[in-house]
Design a protein that fits this description.
alpha+beta; GMP Synthetase, Chain A, domain 3; three-stranded antiparallel sheet; 4 helices
């Protein structure tokens, strides 16, 4: 049984990126952002072939959201997943979110987005 804990990212930007718990389908029973992040983390683990991970805990601490993974998989698999997962949410994620929004808005309005990557 292997385990690994990592910082996903700072709480404020993550709470802007993830859907609010109260907007989720009621059957999911989300109460906090930790529930939302846990749900999406489990989906990512399954998509990456790590469905055997039996425990995903998300906690909010002073420096952001922390994730603890545990299961009958190789530790290096958990570490690789954690590194990639945290890289999805770099510090400049807020700018990317708004750039994506502008891209979508312009696409719908029929103009080509001319932002930078």
């Amino acid at each position: 049984m292997s385990s690994h804990q990592y910082l996903l990212g700072p709480s404020d930007p993550l709470e802007q990126l993830f859907p609010k718990p109260e907007y989720a389908e009621s059957s999911l029973n989300f109460k906090h952002f930790t529930d939302v992040i846990c749900h999406y983390t489990l989906n990512s683990l399954n998509a990456d072939g790590l469905g055997a991970v039996s425990k995903v805990e998300v906690s909010k601490k002073h420096d952001g959201y922390w994730i603890h993974l545990e299961g009958p998989v190789e530790e290096n698999q958990l570490i690789t997943f954690a590194e990639r997962h945290a890289r999805i949410f770099p510090l400049n994620m807020r700018a990317r979110r708004f750039a994506g929004w502008n891209c979508s808005r312009n696409w719908v309005s029929g103009t080509r987005w001319k932002g930078t990557r």
